[in-house]
Amino acid sequence: MSFSTKLSMVLLLSSLFIHASLAEMVCEDLPKDVCAFSVASSGKRCLLETEKGMNGEIEYECRTSEVIVERMAEYIETDQCVEKCGVDRNSVGISSDAFFEPQFTAKLCSPICYQKCPNIVDLFFNLAAGEGVFLPELCEKHKTNPRRAMIELVSSGGAAPAPISDISEDIVFAPAPSPI
């Protein structure tokens, strides 16, 4: 082979590798063990769903939801955040019932989760808001009196959102760097 042919082959292979590395992240292409708490290139959340397989057994599939995450795309949550925030990648769907479990709320509101895992916090912030609960307020109450926070959550059916100025200064909602 001539030098120019070899050079052309190297350039062709290089362009293929570059193209592959620039490919979009699509939820349906993710393995089930990283699906939950991931965000596709489109900015839409990935979610784990069950489907009955041809053999009658339940199979798990990663799907794209219609929920858009602002300021975050092509993101797979770290195993550290999953562990520190007390969530489970194998759970199908999420529920506001998790807020009634003091252990879950303690983990979600802990500084290592709340300040370092914005993807998970954003997800539960929006879930709480849908129930009429302002997550920073719930976390603040949980920090000072966990039992009282749970009683208020149950009895009120949700809390009115607090003004932005009432958010603790040590709470940060900045996106963490992507592990990819």
UniProtKB/TrEMBL annotation:
Source organism, top-level taxon: Eukaryota
Family matches, as Pfam families: PAR1
Annotated InterPro entries: PAR1
UniProt keyword Signal present: yes
Keywords: Signal
Signal peptide range in chain numbering: 1-23
PANTHER family associated with the record: PAR1 PROTEIN (PTHR33649)
Protein name: Uncharacterized protein LOC101492243
